[in-house]
Amino acid sequence: MSQAAYVCDELYRRGWTEAIGGNVSLRMECGGTLVTVSGCRIADVSSDPQRCLGVVDSQGEVVSGFAGGGCPTSELGSHLTTLNMLEADGRCERAMLHCHPPAILALGVTLGEMTGEALTELLWSMHTECGLIFPRGVGALGAMVPGSEELGAKTAEQFKTRDLVFWPHHGLAAIGKTLVEAYDRIDMAEKAAGIALAALQASGINSKLPEAIVNATRAMAK
Ligand code: 13P
Ligand code: ZN
User: Fold this and answer.
1) Residue 108: domain span
2) Per annotation, catalytic residue among 75, 117, 149, 181
3) Residue pLDDT, tens place only, 90-112
4) Please, what sign has the CA dihedral across residues 130, 142, 73, 105?
5) What is this structure's pTM?
6) Tell me: the pLDDT tens digits for 46-83?
7) Could you give the number of structural domains in the chain?
8) How far does residue 207's CA lie from ligand 2's centre (Å)?
9) pLDDT for residue 30 is more than 80
10) Can you give the CATH number for the domain in which 204 is found?
């Protein structure tokens, strides 16, 4: 099974996508970008890759795939602007993943608008592995129209310095060297958000990892 199909199955299994939610992209060695078709059920990708996946060039023109005649994900702007920026900056990340994980969405609703710094500090302080898995933290945007040019441009800008970007009332986006690394980053952030949310629902957040420990784990990240 391809990396894209494996990750799409996981997104569905974890309940991080519903109806047509979620999309993935992977810059390939040949320079093309593998992306999911717009409007597909993520659960269908592994059983019907010919219809659910296709390749676009760096401007978003379809090169191959999308056998059912579909078009690339409506979040293509975020994916391509980000992957083009990463390549131009000589970075090693080649994959981007977007989905709708419930705990971090609920945390955003609970705490209201947050800066990336505040959200990052909170998530890092919930679990020791966070600093290791997303050492550059989470950027946070304001609410935006899905698939909009503004969302794409602001997301790519955040990825210059962050591993993840939070879209309030919508979801998370992550980059990684592989789609599996991007998936793991979402998994870790969602775990930390779930811990924070459970604590807020109980007696509140009464303990946070000391900054020295967070920084030591971040320093261990490759
Ligand atoms: P697409 O099906 O067009 O990828 O849209 C899903 C989504 O999650 C939009 O944000
Ligand atoms: Zn979405």
Assistant:
1) 2-220
2) 75
3) 999 999 999 999 999 999 999 99
4) positive
5) 0.97
6) 999 999 999 999 999 999 999 999 999 999 999 999 99
7) 1
8) 32
9) yes
10) 3.40.225.10
Task: Fill in the amino acid letter for 19.
Answer: A
Which atom of ligand 1 lies at the shortest distance from residue 170's CA?
10
Output the CA 133–ligand 1 centroid distance in Å.
25
- Ligand 1 atom at shortest distance from the alpha carbon of 40: 2
Q: Which of 71, 74, 170 to mutate to test the pocket of ligand 1 (most atoms within 8 A of CB)?
A: 74
Q: CB within 6 Å of ligand 1 — which residues?
A: 20-23, 36, 38-39, 73-75, 146-147
pLDDT band at 222 (very low <50, low <70, confident <90, very high): confident
